[in-house]
Specification:
Blueprint (H helix, E strand, L loop, with lengths): L4 H15 L2 H11 L3 H22 L10 H21 L11 H14 L8 E4 L6 E5 L6 E9 L3 H9 L4 H11 L8 E8 L2 E8 L7 E14 L2 E8 L19 E3 L1 E11 L3 E11 L6 H11 L2 H9 L2 H14 L9 H14 L1 E3 L5 E3 L5 E3 L6 E7 L6 E9 L3 H9 L4 H11 L4 E4 L8 E8 L7 E12 H6 L17 E8 L4 H6 L34 H7 L8 E16 L2 E12 L5 H6 L1 H4 L1 H9 L4 H14 L1 H6 L3 H13 L9 E2 L9 E5 L8 E8 L3 H9 L4 H5 L9 E8 L2 E8 L7 E14 L2 E8 L18 E16 L2 E11 L11 H7 L1 H9 L3 H18 L18 H15 L6 E3 L8 E5 L7 E9 L3 H9 L4 H6 L5 E8 L4 E8 L7 E13 L18 H17 L6 E8 L15 E3 L1 E10 H9 L11 H14 L7 E10 L9 H18 L3 H17 L7 H19 L6 E3 L6 E8 L2 E10 L3 H9 ...
Parallel strand pairs: 6-8, 18-20, 27-29, 36-38, 46-48
Antiparallel strand pairs: 1-2, 2-3, 3-10, 4-5, 5-6, 6-7, 7-9, 9-10, 11-12, 13-14, 14-15, 15-21, 16-17, 17-18, 18-19, 19-20, 20-21, 22-23, 23-24, 24-30, 25-26, 26-27, 27-28, 28-29, 29-30, 31-32, 32-33, 33-40, 34-35, 35-36, 36-37, 37-39, 39-40, 41-42, 42-43, 43-50, 44-45, 45-46, 46-47, 47-49, ...
C-alpha cells in the first residue's frame, strides 16, 4: 500500500490534535502564567494551528475525505469547549476522552472476540514476522482470524493510520478491488461523532456468482494507558440513532447486509516501535462457501503486514539496538559462573588459548587450508583428537570496530539476519527463549534449518555468552585495553556458544511456560542481556514462536537436533579495523553421514564472508588507517625488539656486502628518472643482486608502515592475476617479526615458485630504519598456505634482501632496496636475467608513485619563480626588492634582443602546418632556402597567467617535465642555474638510425618586455616587391603602436640560445663521439586581453589615428564583458634547430610532432575549459532569465516556423520514419520525407536542466563546442555586419546571430568547407521547463580588415584555414525542442534538413498517383527513402560528420562527465555501461576497420 504526502499530513495533524489530548498543552500554558489573557492567547494560538492544519490537509469531496465544513465544525466545537473552560475555570473537556458508553462498546467487542486459554488456534500462515491464525468458537462456522507482529512506528501514528479508513491509499485500494463506480461500491464515513468515534459504510464485491456485501460499522478507540491503545469496530443496524438521516445505500439491485467485529491492540515497544495485533470475525451471511469466507478472513488480517511494509525501518532499528548494546558494554556486570564456564569450555573444545602477550591464539592443531579462491577470508579444517566430526576455522579482516561486530553477533534474531534466514530456510523457527540459567551476558537461541527432501528439518539450540579477554582470562571487571596493549584501540572480545543445556522445546513445556515473541528486546545499561517483555493487552495464549512450534505444516512435524559449538574472537588492529577468528564444530544427531556433515563445513564458515561484505569499506582508506595505527605504536615495537630480529637485519647487510657503490653496475635501460636500478655480481654466487634507489615524498615511519603491510589492499590489487599469485601473512611472531608467504606463477613448462621468508625491521638510528627478510628457517606444509589457482607442482624458492630508509626531511626520505631472488630448480640461465632483478624491485616503483607529491612540489617551486617575476619590471630591475643577482646584465639583454630579432624575420608564408594531436595546439614547420636549419612553431592558449606559464617552461627539471622527458633516447639531461632568471641546460640525446648522439648546450633567460620592444604582431617584415599601399598600412600600424605603447601592458619572453661552453658544465667539453647540435628560440606569453589591444592597432586600413583609441577601447570593452575570472594567456613558441653533421633539416620533420607534443600536455595540464564554459553558461542563463517576457513579431515568426517543422515531422501520415544509426549509441536518429526532402530528427537524453541545455546550445563559441573541423566560429556582435532585420533584436535576450565555417564531407564523399550563418531564436514553449530553439539562415557582412591582419588572425586561430577546400553555404533550417522531464534530466530533439541529392526517376503508369487534395502528381520514389540514400545518411552520421550530431553528442557527454561523483544515480551507471558494452564494429566501414579500440578509448575519455 503506497503512502501519500496527503495521508502523512493527515496523520500528523490527527496525532497532534486528537490522539495527544489538547488539554496537556493548555495545562502547560496555565502553569506558566495565571493571567487570563495569556491563557486565552495560548488557547487561541492552538486553535489557529488546528484550523490551519485542517484547511491545509482538507481535500475535495470526490475523495470522500474530511470536508472543509466538517473540519470547521470540529474547530467550532473546540472553541466552545475552550470558551467554557476559560469562563468557568473548569478543566478543559477533551473530545479525545471516551465516554462510558464508548467504553462499554469496546468491552463488548472484546468479549465477543475473547477465547479461552486452551483455544485451538490453527496456523494458516507461518510468516516469521506476522503469522496468521484462525479458529472456530463454540462449534460455530464463523471463524475468528488473528495476526500479530511488530510495526516500526509509534502506537499513536499506527492508530492514526488504522483509524484513517478513508485515506487516499485506502480509497485507491478499494477502487482497484471493486471498481471506480463509488455509487455501486461506496466507501465513506457516514458520521464523525468525535475525534475517536465514527461510522463507516462500505460495499465490497465478492467472487462470481456471489452477490456484493455491505457493512455499516461503528469504530471507537480509547487510550488504555500511556503505552497502550485499543480500537474496536462492530456492525450496527440501519435503525441506529447515530446514522444520519440523509444516508444513501449502494445502488446495486442485489446486496446482502453482512456483519464484522474487529479489535486492534497497539502496545508501545522500545525504539519507537509498536506491537500490532488484529483480531477479526466476519459473517458474510447468505450461502457463502466456508472456503471463500476463510480466505476473506485471512486477507483481512493481512493489514498487519501492510502496516509493517509501510513503516519499515529494519536497518535503523538494528542500528539502534546495536548502539544501545555498545554503549552498555563498559558497564556490563561481571561474568557469572555459568558464563565463565561456558567460555572456558568453548575455548578448550576449539583448541584456543590466551597467551602471555594478551592474544588469543590456537594450540598445536594441524589445520589444513581450504583453497576456495577467496583470499580475503582464510579457511581451515581439522580433526580434534578423539573427534570424528570436523572443526572449521575462518580468519578475516573486517572494516569495523570490534564492538560493532560483537553487537552484530549478539543480535542473532535481528531484522537483517531474520530476513536472510527467511530467504534461505523459509518460515522456519528462529527465536530467543528463556531458561533458568540467567546471566547478564547470556542468551538462549533456537533456530531451524531446512533440509532437502526426504531429510527432516534440523534444529539447533545454543547457549551464547560474550566477554572481553580481560574479564574472562585476566580477571578484569570491565572492557578496556587488553593485556599487552599499547593503546586503547587494541580491544579484544570473545563470543562463545555451546549446545543448550535446556532446549527450546523443554523451556516451553516446563510449567506450561510460553516463549515470548521475538524482536521485543531492550538492551539496558544495567542489564545488557537481551530482555524480552510480553506486550500488554496481547492475548498470551499464542505467540510467534509457539506458532512455529505447534504449526501443522508437514516440515515442522519432526526435527533432528544439530549440535553446534564454537568461538568468535574479535580483536582490533586499528580504530576501525578488526581481525576476526571464527572456530566452529557441528554434530548431526540424525542418520546423516559424517562425510556429508563435514563437507558442509565450508558453507558454515561463509558467515564470515557475509559479515566482511556487510562492513566492507574502501580498501585504500583501510590501508591508511592500518598504517596510521602502525605509526602510533612504532616506538613501542622498537622497544620490544629481540636479538633474533636484529640478527636477521645484520645477516642481510653482511650478505649483500653492504652499500659499496663501486661494486654496483647501473642498469640505465631498466631505470626511470626517479628510480635508479643497478646490479652486482658476487663471486661464487650464480644469481646477481639488484638494487633500487629513490626518494620518497613521505616520512620514514609512513614508508615503513607501507612496506610492512605486505598484504594491503593497494598492493594486492596491483598484483597481476591474484588468483595465481596469492600472498599472505603466515605467522605473527612479534610486532616487528612476521613470516610471509608468496606464490609466483611461472610460464609453462616452469613450475610455480613458492617463497616463505622471515621479515623483521628495526630502527638503527634516530632517523633510519632497516627492513630485512631472509628464507624461513623451518618448512611450511602445503596444507597451511594458499597455493593459488594452479594445478602445477610448486617449487620452493628463496628471497632475501633489505630496505634501508634514511630521513632527508620531515616528509621526505631516501630509500635503498637490495634484494635477490633464487628460483631454485632447473631454470635456464637465460631466464635468470636482468628481468628477474627488475621484478624483485618493482614494488619500489609502486611505493614512489603511492606517495609522490610531484604536482605539489612543482607548484611550490613555480610559486617561488612567479614571485620573482611579479616583482621584476620591464628594465629587469627589482626596484630594490630582489637580490642584485636578479638584475639583468648587458649580455643577457643583448641575448634577448638578438634571439627575438633573428626569429621575427622568418616570414609566416614559409611555415607549413603540421598534423597536431590536439586541434587547439597549432603546430607548423618551416625550411628556409639555403639554410640547414629547421624552424618549429607552436601557438596555443594556456589557461593560466603569463608568469605561471613562463615558470612552467623555464623549470626544465621540474618533476613533471622530467617524467615526460624520461625516454630511452635521452642519455643526459641536466640543468644548472646562474640565478632565478638565467640557467644553462645540457642535453645529450640519441637520435636513432645508428647516428651519433647529439649534444645541446643552451642558455635560457626570461625577461619581461613591453610592446615597443616586442613587435611580433606587427608587420615588420616587408618583401622588396611590397606595393606602396601595403607599406603605407604597415607604417600606419607602426606609428599607431608607437603612439599607444605607453598604455599597452607588459609581456614575458623566455629565450634560449646555444653556447659553445658553460662554466656550469665544464664536463661538456670533454664528451666524445657526440656531434654538437644547435637550437635557438623563444617563448612569448601574452594575456588574452593584451593581445586584443595589439591586434586592434591595425584593425582598419583607413583608421584615423585620432579615432584609434575609441576603436581599441570598444574591442577591450567587448572582451571584458565576457571575461572569465580565470587567467588565460597566449603562448607562441618558435625554435630554430640544426642537428649538425650531414643531416638535412627535413630529417627533423620526422619527429617534429612528437617533440612538440609536450605543449599539448602543457595545455591539458592547465586546462580550465569546464570552469570557463560554466561561467559563460551562467552569464547566458542570467541573460535568458532577464530577457523580455514576449518576443518580437519577427522572433515569433521564426519560432512558429520551427514548431511547424517539428509538428509536420511527427504527424506526417503515410510516411514511414526510418531509424538511422549514429556515431553515438545514446542518440537516436529518424528520417522522414516531407515535401520531397529528407528531414532527420535526433533525440537524446541530457543529464541537466532544460535552461542549462539551452544556454549550452546558444553559446556556440564555448570551448565545449570547439571541434577540429571548425575553421571559424563567432557570435556576431558588430551591428554594421548585420542585416537591417537582425540589428534591432540581436543579442537582446531571445536572439543572437552566429557565423561559422567548418570542414565537412558532402553526401558524395567530397571534402568541403561548409559556411553557416544562422539566426538563433529561443522561446519558452508551454512552461518554464520547455523551450523551442529556432536556427534560421540569415546573412552577415564581411569584417573590414586589412589583408595583413586577416592573415595574422587566421594564423593565431585554433583552427586550420582549409584554404584548398571548396566553399558551400548551408541554408538549412534547424528546429530544436528542449523539454525537462525531471530535476536533473531533459530530452532534446533536433530536427534538420539532410542535404542529400535525391535521384529523379521517370514516371510511368505504375509509378505515379494523383494526390487527393490538389490533383498533383506524386512520385512514390520521393515519398520513401531509398536504400542508397539511407547508406549515404548513415555514413555521414556514423562518421560523426554532421554538425548537429556532434553538437548533441557533446551536449550529452559534457553534462554526463560534469556530474559530481556523489550525484551519480543508477541511470548514470546504465549510461556508462551502455557506452562500454555497445558494439563498435556493427556499422564500421572498410576504411574505418580496426578503429574499434580507438573509439572505445575516446568514449571512455569523454565520460
Amino acid at each position: 500500500m503506497n503512502d501519500t504526502d496527503q495521508d502523512r499530513a493527515w496523520r500528523d495533524w490527527y496525532v497532534k490534535t486528537a490522539i495527544l489530548p489538547s488539554s496537556k498543552r493548555l495545562d502547560s500554558s496555565r502553569a506558566k502564567s495565571n493571567n487570563t489573557n495569556t491563557l486565552l492567547s495560548a488557547a487561541m494560538d492552538e486553535l489557529q494551528f488546528c484550523a490551519k492544519t485542517a484547511l491545509n490537509t482538507a481535500t475535495d469531496s470526490t475523495n470522500n475525505n474530511i470536508s472543509v465544513q466538517e473540519e470547521l465544525n470540529q474547530i467550532a466545537e473546540r472553541i466552545r469547549l475552550l470558551s467554557h473552560s476559560l469562563a468557568t475555570g473548569e478543566p478543559l473537556q477533551s473530545s479525545s476522552i471516551s465516554s462510558v458508553s464508548e467504553d462499554k462498546f469496546i468491552s463488548a467487542v472484546e468479549n465477543d472476540l475473547s477465547v479461552g486459554p486452551d483455544a485451538n488456534w490453527e496456523v494458516v500462515d507461518e510468516n516469521l514476522f506476522f503469522p496468521k491464525f484462525m479458529m472456530f468458537k463454540d462449534g460455530s462456522n464463523i471463524g475468528i482470524g488473528k495476526s500479530t507482529g511488530v510495526v516500526q512506528t509509534s502506537p499513536e501514528n499506527l492508530l492514526a493510520w488504522t483509524f484513517h479508513v478513508d485515506s487516499a491509499a485506502s480509497m485507491a485500494k478499494h477502487r482497484k478491488r471493486n471498481g471506480l463506480d463509488m455509487n455501486k461500491y461506496p466507501y465513506r464515513i457516514l458520521a464523525r461523532l468525535n475525534d475517536h468515534h465514527h461510522l463507516l459504510y462500505t460495499c465490497r464485491k465478492l467472487p462470481f456468482p456471489l452477490a456484493a456485501r455491505d457493512f455499516i460499522t461503528r469504530g471507537v478507540w480509547k487510550k488504555v494507558d500511556e503505552n497502550n491503545f485499543t480500537l474496536a469496530y462492530k456492525s450496527i443496524n440501519d435503525d441506529d440513532p447515530d446514522i444520519p438521516g440523509n444516508f444513501v445505500k449502494s445502488t446495486l439491485p442485489l446486496i446482502i447486509r453482512s456483519e464484522s467485529i474487529i479489535v486492534y491492540y497497539f502496545s508501545r515497544l522500545p525504539n519507537n516501535q509498536c506491537r500490532y495485533t488484529m483480531i477479526v470475525r466476519a459473517d458474510a451471511r447468505g450461502n457463502v462457501p466456508s472456503k471463500v469466507m476463510n480466505n476473506g478472513l485471512v486477507s483481512m488480517v493481512d493489514k498487519c503486514r501492510q502496516a509493517y511494509d509501510l513503516f519499515e525501518r529494519d536497518n535503523e532499528i538494528d542500528r539502534l539496538e546495536r548502539q544501545a548494546f555498545i554503549s552498555a558494554i563498559t558497564t556490563a556486570p561481571e561474568l557469572t559462573n555459568f558464563e565463565r564456564n561456558l567460555i572456558h569450555k568453548s575455548f578448550a573444545n576449539a583448541g584456543l588459548k590466551h597467551n602471555d602477550q594478551g592474544h588469543v591464539t590456537s594450540t598445536n592443531r594441524d589445520w589444513s587450508r581450504i583453497n576456495d579462491g577467496y583470499f580475503a577470508v582464510k579457511k581451515y579444517t581439522t580433526y580434534a583428537e578423539g573427534d570424528t566430526s570436523i572443526w572449521g576455522k575462518a580468519v578475516a579482516t573486517i572494516h569495523a570496530q570490534p564492538e560493532v561486530i560483537l553487537a552484530w553477533l549478539w543480535f542473532y534474531c535481528s531484522n537483517l539476519r531474520t530476513k536472510e534466514h527467511h530467504k534461505k530456510d523459509g518460515n522456519l523457527l528462529r527465536t530467543y527463549y528463556e531458561t533458568d540459567n540467567k546471566g547478564s551476558r547470556t542468551q538462549h537461541i533456537c533456530v531451524r534449518k531446512a533440509m532437502p527432501t526426504p531429510l527432516l528439518t534440523r534444529e539447533t539450540n545454543i547457549d551464547c555468552s560474550w566477554s572481553d579477554t580481560n574479564s574472562v582470562f585476566v580477571g578484569g571487571k570491565s572492557p578496556g585495553p587488553r593485556k599487552g596493549a599499547t593503546t586503547y584501540t587494541e580491544r579484544e572480545f570473545v563470543f562463545c556458544f555451546q549446545p543448550a543445556q535446556i532446549s527450546y522445546k523443554d523451556s516451553i513445556n516446563e510449567k506450561g511456560r510460553v516463549s515470548p515473541a521475538p524482536l521485543e528486546r531492550q538492551p539496558q545499561a544495567s542489564n545488557i542481556r537481551t530482555k524480552f517483555t510480553s506486550a500488554a493487552k496481547i492475548s498470551p495464549e499464542i505467540t510467534v514462536a509457539s506458532a512455529h512450534q505447534d504449526g501443522a505444516k508437514e516440515k515442522n512435524k519432526g526435527v533432528v537436533q544439530l549440535k553446534t559449538q564454537g568461538v568468535w574472537v574479535v580483536r582490533s588492529t586499528s580504530e576501525n579495523v578488526t581481525e576476526v577468528t571464527f572456530v566452529t564444530n557441528v554434530i548431526d544427531e540424525g542418520n546423516l553421514p559424517k562425510s556429508v556433515v563435514n563437507a558442509k563445513m565450508k558453507s558454515n564458515l561463509s558467515i564470515v564472508n557475509f559479515v566482511q561484505d556487510l562492513y566492507e569499506r574502501n580498501g585504500l582508506q583501510v590501508d591508511k588507517e592500518i598504517r596510521q595505527e602502525f605509526q602510533r605504536t612504532i616506538n613501542f615495537a622498537v622497544a620490544q625488539k629481540t636479538a633474533a630480529e636484529e640478527q636477521i637485519v645484520k645477516d642481510q647487510l653482511e650478505l649483500s656486502k653492504g652499500d659499496k657503490t663501486e661494486l654496483w653496475e647501473p642498469m640505465d635501460q631498466r631505470s626511470s628518472v626517479f628510480v635508479k636500478i643497478s646490479k652486482k655480481h658476487i663471486a661464487g654466487e650464480p644469481i646477481n643482486w639488484g638494487r633500487a634507489e629513490t626518494t620518497v615524498d613521505a616520512s620514514c615511519d609512513t614508508v615503513l608502515s607501507w612496506l610492512w603491510d605486505y598484504c594491503s589492499y593497494e598492493r594486492m590489487a596491483s598484483q597481476h592475476d591474484l588468483r595465481r599469485n596469492p600472498r599472505e601473512v603466515l605467522k605473527v611472531i612479534s610486532r616487528n617479526h612476521w613470516i610471509f608467504s608468496s606464490v609466483k606463477h611461472m610460464s609453462f613448462p616452469i613450475h610455480t615458485r613458492h617463497f616463505v621468508y622471515d621479515a623483521a625491521w628495526t630502527k638503527t638510528s634516530e632517523n633510519s630504519y632497516v627492513f630485512a627478510w631472509q628464507p624461513c628457517g623451518f618448512s611450511i606444509s602445503t596444507k597451511n598456505y594458499d597455493s593459488g589457482k594452479s594445478f602445477r607442482k610448486s617449487v620452493k624458492g628463496e628471497a632475501m634482501g633489505y630496505i634501508k630508509l634514511q630521513a632527508l626531511s620531515k616528509n621526505t626520505c631516501h630509500l635503498t632496496k637490495v634484494s635477490k631472488l633464487i628460483l631454485a630448480g632447473r631454470i635456464p640461465r637465460k631466464l635468470m636475467s636482468d628481468a628477474l632483478i627488475v621484478r624483485g624491485l618493482s614494488d619500489v616503483f609502486q611505493l614512489r608513485e603511492t606517495f609522490n607529491r610531484d604536482d605539489e612540489i612543482d607548484q611550490a617551486e613555480r610559486n617561488k619563480l612567479i614571485a620573482v617575476m611579479a616583482q621584476s619590471d620591464v628594465i629587469g630591475n627589482a626596484s630594490g626588492m630582489l637580490d642584485e643577482a636578479e638584475i639583468y646584465n648587458a649580455m643577457e639583454e643583448e641575448k634577448v634582443q638578438s634571439v627575438t630579432r633573428r626569429l621575427d624575420n622568418v616570414n609566416d608564408d614559409h611555415f607549413q602546418q603540421l598534423v597536431s594531436p590536439d586541434f587547439r595546439t597549432k603546430m607548423s614547420i618551416a625550411f628556409l632556402p639555403g639554410e640547414m636549419n629547421a624552424y618549429l612553431r607552436v601557438e596555443v592558449t594556456i589557461d593560466t597567467s603569463i608568469e605561471e606559464a613562463c615558470a612552467y617552461n623555464f623549470q626544465i627539471m621540474s618533476r613533471m617535465r622530467m617524467k615526460l622527458n624520461d625516454t630511452k633516447d635521452v642519455v643526459t639531461r641536466e640543468c644548472r642555474s646562474f640565478n632565478m632568471h638565467s640557467q644553462d641546460n645540457h642535453l645529450v640525446q640519441d637520435i636513432g638510425f645508428g647516428l651519433k648522439t647529439r649534444q645541446f648546450l643552451t642558455r635560457h633567460i626570461w625577461k619581461r618586455l613591453d610592446s615597443k620592444a616586442w613587435k611580433r604582431n606587427l608587420p615588420v617584415y616587408q618583401d622588396e616587391d611590397e606595393d606602396a599601399d601595403s607599406q603605407r598600412v604597415s607604417q600606419l600600424s607602426m606609428d599607431a603602436h608607437a603612439h599607444y605603447h605607453s598604455s599597452v601592458p607588459k609581456r614575458l619572453v623566455h629565450v634560449f640560445d646555444d653556447v659553445d661552453e658553460s662554466s656550469l658544465f665544464p664536463e661538456a667539453k670533454n664528451l666524445r663521439n657526440v656531434i654538437k647540435a644547435r637550437s635557438t628560440g623563444y617563448f612569448s606569453y601574452e594575456q588574452i586581453n593584451d593581445r586584443l589591444r595589439t591586434l586592434g592597432l591595425d584593425d582598419r586600413e583607413d583608421a584615423a589615428l585620432a579615432n584609434l583609441d575609441a576603436l581599441i577601447d570598444e574591442r577591450i570593452a567587448a572582451y571584458e564583458a565576457e571575461k572569465s575570472k580565470y587567467s588565460t594567456c597566449y603562448m607562441t613558441y618558435i625554435c630554430q634547430i640544426e642537428l649538425g653533421g650531414v643531416l638535412l633539416p627535413q630529417f627533423i620533420q620526422i619527429a617534429a610532432t612528437s617533440f612538440l607534443n609536450q605543449f599539448v600536455v602543457m595545455r591539458k595540464h592547465f586546462c580550465k575549459d569546464h570552469m570557463i564554459d560554466f561561467e559563460k553558461r551562467e552569464r547566458m542563463i542570467k541573460k535568458i532569465k532577464q530577457a523580455p517576457k514576449h518576443c518580437t513579431r519577427l522572433e515569433n515568426n521564426d519560432i512558429e516556423k520551427a514548431r511547424i517543422l517539428l509538428r509536420d515531422f511527427d504527424n506526417a501520415e503515410g510516411k514511414k520514419k526510418e531509424p538511422i544509426a549514429t556515431s553515438n549509441k545514446l542518440v537516436s536518429a529518424f528520417a522522414r520525407v516531407i515535401d520531397g526532402e529528407i528531414w532527420v530528427k535526433l533525440i537524446g537524453t541530457i543529464r541537466c536542466e532544460a535552461i542549462d541545455a539551452l544556454a549550452f546550445l546558444v553559446s556556440v563559441d564555448s570551448r565545449s563546442l570547439a571541434d577540429e573541423n571548425d575553421i571559424e566560429k563567432e557570435i556576431v556582435l558588430d551591428p554594421d555586419r548585420l542585416r537591417e532585420t537582425d540589428k534591432g533584436r540581436n543579442n537582446s535576450g531571445h536572439t543572437c546571430v552566429v557565423n561559422s565555417i567548418q570542414k565537412s564531407v558532402s553526401g558524395d564523399g567530397t571534402k568541403i568547407k561548409n559556411k553557416k550563418t544562422k539566426r538563433l531564436v529561443w522561446r519558452i514553449e508551454h512552461s518554464k521547463d520547455s523551450y523551442i530553439l529556432s536556427s534560421m539562415p540569415t546573412e552577415v557582412f564581411k569584417r573590414d580588415v586589412t589583408a595583413d591582419f586577416e592573415i595574422r588572425r587566421k594564423n593565431t586561430s585554433f583552427y586550420g584555414t582549409g584554404k584548398n577546400l571548396p566553399l558551400t553555404v548551408d541554408e538549412g533550417e534547424v528546429a530544436t525542442r528542449i523539454k525537462q522531464i525531471s530535476s536533473s534530466e531533459s530530452i532534446v530533439e533536433v530536427l534538420f534538413h539532410m542535404q542529400v541529392r535525391r535521384s529523379k526517376k521517370k514516371l510511368n503508369a505504375k509509378s505515379f498517383s494523383i494526390s487527393q487534395a490538389g490533383g498533383d502528381i506524386v512520385n512514390p520514389s520521393n515519398v520513401n527513402i531509398s536504400n542508397k540514400e539511407m547508406k549515404i545518411m548513415e555514413r555521414m552520421l556514423l562518421q560523426n560528420n554532421h554538425d548537429e550530431v556532434r553538437t548533441l553528442s557533446k551536449l550529452q557527454n559534457c553534462f554526463q562527465n560534469w556530474r559530481k561523483l556523489d550525484e551519480l544515480l543508477d541511470v548514470d551507471g546504465r549510461v556508462f555501461g551502455r557506452v562500454l558494452m555497445q558494439k563498435t564494429g556493427v556499422r564500421i566501414f572498410s576504411q574505418q576497420r580496426g578503429g574499434g579500440k580507438e573509439w572505445l578509448t575516446n568514449s571512455l575519455t569523454t565520460f
